[in-house]
Amino acid sequence: MNGARQQVRAAWAICTKDLRAEFRTRYALSAIGLFALTTLTVVSFAVGPLFLEPDLLSALLWVILFFAAMAGLSRAFVHEEEARTAPALRLAAPPVAVYLGKGLFNLALLFLLEAIIVPLFFAMMGLEVGNPGLFLLVLLLGDVGLAGVTTVVAAMVAQASARGALFTVLSFPLLLPLLIKCIEGARIALTGGSVAAAGSSLGVLSAYAVAMGTVSAMLFPAIWTET
Amino acid sequence: MYRLVLQGIGKRYGRLRALQGVEAQVESGEVLVVAGRNGSGKSTLLRIIAGLTRPSSGAVLLYEDGRILSPEERRARIGLVAVDVALYGELTARENLAFFAQLRGLTLSATDALRLLAEVGLAGREDDLVLTYSSGMRQRLKYACALLHRPPVLLLDEPGANLDAAGTQMVERILAHQRQHGLVVLATNDPREVAWGDRVVRLGEETP
Amino acid sequence: MGSKRWTDVGKWALGVWMVAVLLGAFLLDARRLGTLGQGARIIFFHIPTAWVTVLALIVSSVLSIRYLARRRREDDRRAANSAGLGILFCLLATITGSIFARITWGAFWNWDPRETTIFVLLLFYAAYFALRAAVGDEETRATLSAAYNVLGLVVVPFLVFIAPRLPGLAGLHPEPIVNVRGEVDMDAQALLVFLASLVGFTGIYLWAFRLANRIALAEERMNALEEAVGSAAGR
């Protein structure tokens, strides 16, 4: 068995398995999507008639995305534990493949969420993006970091009680640097700044995603065993 | 040739002592029965052998032709059927099989999958969601998933749970087949299933 | 026990030392305190508590890494004890800092970079203890909280790096007492008191840490004893 290829294959199997199950039950996606939609509506009603600075708008967008993610991304592991399928998965798949597969699944959920919420946000706020390419790049890097961290935290939370509240409580301090940089990057993109102008944000976001992803993957085998 | 050795296995959950000093061994061609009343730690012992749970003391050694296997190698050689380990309800039986085959790096052809499902008596229901299965059918599917990679070590926790007479016969067939290329560890309370064993280890007899 | 006597001596020495630090901090001639005058006296307490916060959290993370490597229960216990002291000193640093901020900048809280960092640290360790409270099994609790601690250790550098660039918030903190060029920007007597306080607070941390570890160990032994008695009675 050649190790790395088999890891990737197993990770892909886990990701597609979760996506298939998700499309049949639509549990996580409806939780995340409805949460985001509700918040977006509230925000839009509250600030509709006002003209907002890009600072505030990019902060609002990321606050909506963050809390929507908190509503559904723990599902990846919590459901495995609740349905008692986790032991079968532990037995059949290498731990790093589980982290990778679940991370990819959470990333896919974030993409789906943003595909709906971001255009709606711009439409409701009557907003135009100065630099769409940069905006997407910030979104992409932010999603990778967000998925990497929420996946490892979800695996922890799945083994604890009071999961819903704990997931947000544990994720927030870890994600704060990411959120700050995403808001900053989005602001630069909204005002039409160049990629070079957002260089420091993009750099920190990339470094954050790489560092947190690597450390999470290293910690994961210890987290992903029952005791 | 496989040999499984349990050396002084102990497990504590905080103040609770689930297992203490369990010693046993079993070789290819044999069935080891783990017996004991409810709560004596049978399931815990099987989980420890599978590598799902870390023992507080002692060690599990699996020899392949005299060589001790690493935990990762051991994981690849184990098949587990247990009441408290479920399969994916949102997937069909065939998708479950295909998923576990992919995880283990196997290629499973459609005919192989159908044959395996027919062997455990699920012919005709292959493409139904497992959610719609009865508990007996789920137990049968667990056998198919556990045998998928022809594991030399088969761990059965309450093998007859939820099974009808035909199901019990199926288990007997599987045991007979497994003896030819590997070993079985089986946890049960049922006297008839205890009789299947070549060796028996009884848990929880020393403490009240 | 010889070590017992030395701890007693150390304890008393620490007490005397801290009294001297207190006297120094409050009796030092105000003209030696620079432009901030009387208000600057809080520096003698604010910076040492902030330093001990950082020290306690580093110790906690290192012990967590060691727990993951060796899986010994005492490492987990000590990591938690140090994190607990870290929270305590973090609170003290936050309170003294916000009093200082009121005096010098006019408001108790300004979201200055260092205020942001210390606030996130508070949140992080509150989350750490929330996680510990939510896991019943001892070994799982130890593993998960150690892993979370390590994740926190990775986040801190990002926090420190990005904080000064928060939009619209330039740092309000004065230049560090010992600045990047290695020059010491403080009156010699004031510096002496400051360094003595730094040493004293570190001593208090070490003493409290040792004490907490001994209490935890005693509790564990008592539990083991109770269990042994219980199972003997049950027989």
Structural write-up:
- The complex is a heterotrimer of chains A (227), B (208) and C (235).
- With 227 residues, chain A is mainly α.
- Chain A contains nine helices and no strands.
- Chain B is 34% helix and 28% strand.
- Chain B has seven helices and nine strands, in the order E-E-E-H-E-E-H-E-H-H-H-E-H-E-H-E.
- The relative contact order of chain B is 0.22.
- Chain C is mainly α and 235 residues long.
- At the A-C interface, helix 7, helix 8 and helix 9 of A face helix 4 and helix 5 of C.
Topology:
The complex is a heterotrimer of chains A (227), B (208) and C (235).
Chain A: H1 3-25, H2 27-47, H3 54-72, H4 75-82, H5 86-92, H6 95-125, H7 132-157, H8 163-190, H9 199-223
Chain B: E1 2-13, E2 16-27, E3 31-35, H1 42-50, E4 57-64, E5 67-68, H2 71-76, E6 78-81, H3 93-103, H4 110-119, H5 135-147, E7 153-157, H6 165-181, E8 183-188, H7 191-194, E9 199-202
Parallel strand pairs in B: 3-8, 3-9, 6-7, 7-8
Antiparallel strand pairs in B: 1-2, 1-4, 4-5
Chain C: H1 2-27, H2 43-70, H3 73-104, H4 113-134, H5 138-162, H6 188-234
Helix pairs in contact in C: 1-6, 2-3, 2-5, 2-6, 3-4, 3-5, 3-6, 4-5
Summary, kept brief:
The complex is a heterotrimer of chains A (227), B (208) and C (235). Chain A is mostly helical and 227 residues long.
Spell the H/E element sequence of chain A.
HHHHHHHHH
Structural class determined from secondary elements of chain C: mainly alpha
The chain pair forming the largest interface, with residue counts per chain, is: A-C, 33 and 33 residues
**Into which percentage range does the β-strand content of chain C fall?**
under 5%
- Report the uncertain regions of chain C: 165-171, 175-184
Q: State the shape of chain C.
A: globular
How big is the Rg of chain A?
18 Å
Helix count of chain C? 6
Order of helices and strands of chain C: HHHHHH
Give me the secondary-structure category of chain A. Answer: mainly alpha
Shape of chain A: globular
Number of strands of chain C: 0
> Helix tally of chain A?
9
- Main β-sheet description of chain C: none
What tags apply to this protein structure?
heterotrimer, A: 227 residues, mainly alpha, globular, B: 208 residues, alpha/beta, 5-stranded parallel β-sheet, 34% helix, 28% strand
